[in-house]
Design brief:
Strand content: 15-25%
CATH architecture of one domain: Alpha-Beta Complex
Radius of gyration: 25 Å
CATH class of one domain: Alpha Beta
Largest sheet: 4 strands, antiparallel
Helix content: 25-40%
Distance between the termini: 36 Å
Structural class: alpha+beta
Strand order of the largest sheet: 3-9-6-7
CATH superfamily of one domain: DNA methylase specificity domains
Number of strands: 24
Number of helices: 11
Length: about 450
């Protein structure tokens, strides 16, 4: 059953004619395990439809077999049908599996020979925005199932669907590749910081007569024994100090809603500029017009710490981010939700402070100095009173050189990613609506496959 669409050669189908729809399961927290099959929840869908493992929960193999009817497949489309993130859409890649679908989401699975699975994701992502106008509910918004199933999608021929999804998919795959490369670089720098400044691996190796695995000129900078301190055993000659001796902090600016406009050359670094668990989100900036102090301007490359948190698991408060440059705004200003942290005239670098702020001990200290019920607020004493083991200048400088190189590559990836996202967002509605057409989809596919 279908109706002729206004676009020549395209047809309108209801969603349930071309896809199977199924809800998730309300898994019990008592069944969660440290590893195994991941249970995908609404928080695991990123802003661009990518799947992440932030705050992931798992169940073991035996339990996963019990609930195999909720197992996801590659090229599935996910849709959040209820709650604060209503309308979020995700796409399952092979690397996201094995995974099971949690409650509050639907899986939309393409029927064979009815629709290209990836085209279905793009078409649904674009068209489903109209669903949000139908959302209704008392305590929480939700989408009525009948309206959801009967959503109309405009579909070209399968060959044109494949051509469209190949073009958009190539952009998304490159975006995802850049994201994963950046994650790997960040993880490498974070692992090195932990090895040198938390676990003291080179010192342990030298104390036990083992090879440190480091070049000789770096290994020689580490001592070969420990001494007692208020933080426990630390490398001999290193000292325990409070962070207040090494930083200068500046509170961000409180703003009124009238100062947030659709566009200006100035933007605020807000709470949405922080990734859960730490890290920077460029899409969290808000256009702003209003006065601010010179010290409240954030220069790209500077460190900010989140001062508030509205997440249930306190995943943002006290977390760090290094602000990146943007081609859209000329000036960035910290909001009251962000604290600017600048090194003083000591030898500690922004890069060192950033990775220090990602350690478990720092996270625990920030949480202990936070208060509030629905909204957490960071105490003004949180950062100054944090105690850490201060290493020698030369070791900090070597780490900073490595971390700076990694973070520069992350920023380069991010800039390319922003360009790709803009191109994708420009093309998607035009391709899905038929405004842009491929005169010879088969020829285009042959060329794309040759390039691939």
């Amino acid at each position: 059953m279908y109706r002729e669409n206004m676009i020549s050669g395209w047809n309108a189908f209801s969603l349930d004619e071309v896809a199977d729809l199924k809800g998730g399961y309300a898994f019990k927290s008592k069944d969660y395990t440290p590893y195994g099959h991941v249970i995908l929840r609404t928080v695991n869908i990123g802003a661009r439809g990518q799947i992440n493992r932030e705050g992931a929960v798992f169940i073991d193999e035996e339990k996963a077999n019990e609930y195999k009817s909720f197992a996801l497949q590659a090229s599935d489309t996910l849709f959040v049908m209820v709650g604060a993130t209503l309308g979020k859409v995700g796409f399952i890649r092979p690397s996201d599996l094995p995974a099971l679908l949690n409650q509050n989401m639907w899986v939309i699975r393409a029927k064979e020979n009815k629709v290209n699975p990836r085209y279905l994701y793009y078409s649904f992502s674009h068209t489903s925005k109209s669903i949000l106008g139908w959302a209704s509910g008392a305590a929480r918004d939700f989408v009525r199932r009948d309206d959801f199933r009967k959503l109309k999608l405009s579909l070209p021929s399968l060959s044109e669907q494949k051509a469209i999804s190949s073009v958009l998919g190539a952009l998304d795959d490159k975006i995802e590749l850049n994201r994963r490369m950046s994650e790997t670089l960040e993880e490498m720098a974070r692992a090195q910081f932990k090895s040198w400044f938390v676990d003291f691996d080179p010192v342990h190796a030298k104390a036990e007569g083992r090879d440190t695995g480091l070049p000789a000129h770096i290994a020689d900078l580490f001592p070969d024994s420990f001494e007692d301190s208020e933080l426990g055993e630390i490398p001999k000659g290193w000292v325990v100090q409070e962070l207040k001796d090494h930083i200068v902090t500046t509170k961000g600016r409180s703003y009124r809603s009238s100062e947030l406009i659709s566009f200006s050359k100035t933007a605020m670094v807000t709470l949405k500029s922080f990734e859960r668990g730490g890290g920077y989100r460029s899409d969290g900036l808000k256009s702003f017009v209003g006065p601010f102090k010179l010290q409240q301007e954030v220069i790209p490359g500077e460190l900010v710490i989140a001062c508030t948190d509205v997440t249930q698991a306190a995943e943002v408060v006290g977390k760090p981010a290094i602000v990146r440059g943007t081609s859209i705004y000329e000036t960035l200003v910290a909001s009251l939700d962000a604290l600017i942290v600048r090194p003083n005239d000591t030898f500690l670098s922004t890069e060192y402070l950033y990775y220090l702020a990602l350690t478990e001990s720092f996270t625990a200290h920030m949480y202990a100095h936070s208060s509030g019920t629905t909204v957490l607020h960071l105490s003004k004493f949180a950062l100054p009173t944090f105690k850490f083991c201060l290493p020698p200048r030369q070791i900090v400088e070597i780490f900073t050189e490595f971390a700076t190189s990694a973070l520069r590559q992350v920023e380069s990836n991010s800039r390319e990613e922003d360009c790709l996202i803009n191109l994708r967002d420009l093309l998607l509605p035009k391709l899905i609506s038929g405004e842009f057409r491929f005169p010879d989809p088969k020829s285009l596919l042959d060329k794309l496959e040759t390039v691939a």
